[in-house]
Specification:
By secondary structure, the chain is α+β, with helices and mostly antiparallel strands. It is built from 11 helices and 13 strands. Strands 8-9-10-11 form a 4-stranded antiparallel β-sheet. The protein has a 3-stranded antiparallel β-sheet with strand order 3-5-4.
Length: 249
């Protein structure tokens, strides 16, 4: 289809207008920002949606304070980071969901038929945070299952949750998020770097992931941005049509 780029996940097609795509100069600048390993390390550290001080980012990047400051300045100017000032302290975070989606997509392996990138952490492949929403095999399985059940509806603006889906979540224990709130939020299709298919991002994806964390269906790993499903969480997700293959558990 002329003028559009399409990414398929099951029966869903996400379409992006070419007006939304970066031009060659923007793409070159984005590549240059990621080409420095210290900057890449800082960005990966923030992929869990956290906000961190410059000193902590300097340590994870293995650079001194002055060098870290220069890298952070460039990332801010490039639009990938935002800064929150609290008194004398400055905390850096990813600029928004768009920045996170770009970073996730840029990590896609070049070999599309490989089952997973060689050397990848199985826990990260199974379930992880992409910024603040669920990604990995579990995130893709959720998106596929709820599209198939008609709980998620897609249009030119993104993903929308239907009332039947919201009621099913509440009935299965996600009762801290009012159904009306879920119905007002818009999600987005985010291309998963290990699965090469779409998972649910945007405000809707963040709200559902937060609800699952609050309910104990998922818990955060202390070592990475992996999310660890509980046995109860897997059982409840299975009732909602979301299942992991045995090999992925």
């Amino acid at each position: 289809m002329c003028g559009e780029t399409s990414v398929r996940s099951g029966d869903y097609t996400a379409r992006m207008s070419r007006a939304d795509l970066p031009n060659r100069y923007q793409l070159a600048e984005f590549g240059a920002l990621l080409a420095e390993p210290a900057r890449a390390a800082m960005l990966l550290m923030l992929m869990d949606g956290s906000a961190r001080p410059a000193g902590e980012l300097a340590r994870v990047a293995g650079v001194g304070a002055a060098t870290a400051s220069a890298h952070l300045k460039r990332l801010l100017e490039g639009g990938l980071l935002a800064v929150h000032e609290q008194g004398r302290h400055r905390y850096y975070r990813l600029a928004d969901d768009d920045a996170a989606a770009w970073l996730e997509a840029m990590a896609l392996p070049r070999a599309p038929r490989a089952p997973r990138p060689q050397g990848s952490d199985p826990a990260l492949c199974r379930a992880r945070t992409c910024y603040r929403h669920l990604a990995g095999q579990l995130g893709v399985a959720l998106c596929d299952a709820w599209l198939a059940r008609g709980w998620l509806r897609s249009d030119g603006q993104g993903f929308h949750f239907e009332a039947a889906g919201a009621e099913a979540l509440i009935a299965n224990g996600l009762d801290r998020t009012p159904p009306g709130q879920l119905l007002r939020l818009v999600g987005r299709g985010c291309l998963d770097w290990t699965e090469r298919r779409l998972h649910l991002g945007g405000p809707l994806g963040v709200a559902i992931t937060t609800a699952m964390l609050d309910a104990g269906w998922l818990r955060r790993s202390q070592r990475s941005r992996a999310l660890l499903p509980s046995d109860d969480g897997l059982r409840r997700l299975a009732r909602l049509g979301v299942r992991l293959d045995e090999a992925a558990r």
